Each structure stands twice: as C-alpha cells, then as structure tokens.
Amino acid sequence: GEFSGKTMTNTAVTGVAIESGSITLKEQNQTVKASCMIDTSSTPATLNVCVRGGTTLLLLKLAYRLDGDNLTLCTVLMPDAEAPDSFETKEGDGRMLLTLRRTKMED
Fold first, then answer.
1. Is pTM beyond 0.85 here?
2. How large is the greatest C-alpha to C-alpha distance in the chain, in angstroms?
3. Which residues contact 29 (CB under 8 A, 6 or more apart)?
C-alpha cells in the first residue's frame, strides 16, 4: 500500500469482507464491522463506510476498483473528505491506497 506518496511496509489490515450492506475489516489484533453502501454509478465507483468510534459515527468515503481477484481501495484520511477521483497518492495528500487480493476469509 501507499500513504501520501510513500510505500507502507506494514499495513494493519489483513483482510476485508464486503457483503449485503456491511464490511468486516480484519486487522492484526482485532476485527472491525461497519455498515457500508456501494455506489457503482460514480466514476470511480465508491464505497461509503460508516464506522462507530466511541460515541461518534465516522463516514469514510473510498474509491474502489475490482479487477479479477484484486480489490483496490483509495481514501483520504481526513474528516468529511470526498472519495478520491483517482487511484494514486502524492506527498502530503493524506490519501491511502491499498490493493487486496481475494482469498477465503477465515472466521
């Protein structure tokens, strides 16, 4: 993955499952479940994820691309940011880019 134009050598996300209005993120030490909405009418397609952080609901807007078994996600890690319009990061832009490969997710 990349963050603000630099390669991330160790990402916390080890798996993602998206199904019927929900997303599950597996990280090294925890599993996070959230509601989500997919919008395929925009270009690029977007995935809006609503995550509870304590008593606050956070909306994270991601651009996504599915190419065979590869899922590419790009987001701006700032409150109220719109989904990115491209799949790239540049120094200081606050964007995170991840490419995940489909595998069977363990329970």
1. no
2. 38
3. none
Q: How far apart are CA 46 and CA 87, in angstroms?
A: 12
- CA pair distance 20, 22, nearest whole angstrom: 6
Mean pLDDT within 55-72: 89
pLDDT of 13-36, one tens digit each? 777 888 888 888 887 788 888 899
Place of tokens 């190419």: 67
44: its two tokens: 């690029």
Residue with tokens 């996070």: 32
Q: Give the helix ranges, DSSP H, for the chain.
A: none
Mean per-residue pLDDT, 86-103: 90
Token pair for 104: 């069977």
C-alpha pair distances (Å), 1 with each of 7, 54, 55, 104: 6, 27, 30, 21
